[in-house]
Amino acid sequence: MPMFTPGADPGSSFPELLKRVGLTPAATTGDVGAELSVPHATTCVALRFAGGVVMAGDRRATSGNLISHRGMEKVVQADLHSGVAIAGAAGPAMEMVKLFQLQLEHYEKVEGNALSLEGKANQLSMMVRGNLPAAMQGMVVVPIFAGYDLLRTNGRLFTYDVTGGRYEEHDYVATGSGMLHAGTVIKIAWRDGLDREAAVALACRGLWEAADADSATGGPDALRGIYPVVAVITADGWERLDDIELAAVFESIAAEVRAR
Questions:
Q1: Is 2 contained in some domain?
Q2: From the candidates 24, 28, 29, 42, which is the catalytic residue?
Q3: 62 catalytic per annotation
Q4: Domain count, the chain
Q5: Whole domain around residue 63: which residue ranges?
Q6: What is the pLDDT of residues 89-146, one digit of tens each?
Q7: CATH code at 42?
Q8: CA angle 172, 176, 178 (to 5 degrees)
Q9: What is the pLDDT of residues 182-209, one digit of tens each?
């Protein structure tokens, strides 16, 4: 284990610890987006309901006009009461999520207690800000952070811009190439006091409409058994919905569309 003098101790910051031991990756140079066909993750949504928050993301990753992955997981558990949904360059996004998970675990081990939800949102903001040089070269990462605030006893949503700006959304948020379509569907149907079932159905409906209008967003694939990742975060913690429940939700949406 590395030893630090009092003035050089990185404390509870895991990214700072990596810097002090020389494990920070070298910054890329040049216009990466122009030279490489980088897989990009698309459309994720999150919304509040009476007991917490719902997060959902489609499974498709695209490289230009090609589908590079059909089963990518863009909604990831950060800790027991929070999660991250990613859109943008897939590689840097997944690296950021893993570093964020380690930072939360490292902080809890060093300090002896967990960060507040507000503190977690701020930590992710600094990581997005640290990715700015890569973002200016085409490797943009724009996450959604959501969780259940044990201090306020309600669900909370946070979105970011490429400079690390952090903004709290009170009702719902969408990101990615299909955000306009998914966000519009949720905006029209969202209401205060939604229960879990209605919130899950609304998130799935948003992704359905985004997939219908945006080629980069993947819809439910019953043939391959691939459904969006949907998670619910409440006071009891993180819960990912299984494909059986999601299949029933999307079949209900399909039946409604066929009836129209």
A1: no
A2: 42
A3: no
A4: 1
A5: 37-259
A6: 888 899 999 999 999 999 999 899 889 999 999 999 999 999 888 888 888 888 999 9
A7: 3.60.20.10
A8: 85
A9: 999 999 999 999 999 999 999 999 999 9
